[in-house]
Amino acid sequence: MKKFYLLPALFIAACSHKAPSVIYHLQDLLDHKEYFKLDKALQSAAPDLPAVERTYFTAFTDNAFNKNQGCIASVDSLFGTNEPAISDSVKAKLLILQGDSYFKLGQYAKAAMNDSLIIARYPKTVDQAILDDVMNELLIRKALKTTPAQQTIISANTTVHWTRDSIGLIEIPISSGGRNVAAIFDTRANISSLTRTYADKLHLHPLDVSYQEGAGITGAQFQVGLAVADSLMIGNILIKNAVFQVMPDSLLYIAPVKFQLDIILGFPVIAQLGEFQWYSDGNLTIPRTPGTSTLHNLALDGLDPVLNLVAAGDTLPFHFDTGASSSVLYSTYFAKHRAAILKTAVKKTKTFGGAGGSRKKESYVLPSLRLTLDNKTVSVDSVSVFQEKITTGEKLYGNIGQDFMKQFTAFTVNFQDMFVTVWR
Asked: What pLDDT is attached to residue 391?
């Protein structure tokens, strides 16, 4: 068996002379969630990488590009033959990664097992904030362990008409429990959500669990539960065993604009559609067979879609959020472009709202921001830039919302080949 020397965060084969500097570069890209650059650099470096390191990084890129079976197999391979040479901190990271892929595939019991192993064997090797997240996720996954995986049946191309609600969010018609309702279409909702009132109206099956959830831009934390819809329909598409977060009605009430959010379709439902085509004329089409492309500009950070965009001359990863009416830039972007921002932006205090309420935040407001996707460049007006982090682990550069989407006549988002194409 090869001898592996442990370096911070991963292992390096002693027999390789070129590998250490390459591996440090790959790890740096991974640490900063530069998934697109990591994938490209890994493909280039693969012939010179020892098999163990190649498998390690491939597990992360497979997870990021929605190849969950590949991620699971890679982690199993690493634990199967190399476990004695892997540090506890790396084992914990790999278990977290694999657990995420299990969850995306609806293998909730296996995801829960990974969480339990981390808590039992490696509680002192991960940061407390990460351990807290693992313990919280274990509550979710244990509650779901006997729930069948979500299944989506698309028998034909389906088109539904979307509308905007009074605060500008995209809603599509769905039906469940014999009722027709309008649901917000939100790519950054990690789990679909609805109020307790609507959980009762749609006859969802509640699960005996309570756990902590957070709201993106407001940073609010609150307790929620879970329920499962035996079936729901989007046009003629049947979705079985859809999981919903159940929240008190008050947590989905946005007081500054006096608006009640009732039901939000999130990532697990949207991603399993395979592909959706959004048209500015009010149509949303889900093809029976998703398209293909080599564009490769969409990734996943856990359950968050990530879009690769060119901004201010940089190619950078951003959260992609159809449930946000406007785009914002994070502190990472401020740090990278501080001089230009201070020169052109105006400092303002603005109110930002979402699940869990609203919060006033100080930000710099850029008069405009040019963004390029699929070789098409548009300008988004009045973009807020935060100087302080929203979350402690913040690595991406911003959250791209509907003010960007509105610049195009059509938008195709594909979770199979992981790409986004646009038309003007």
From this structure: 82
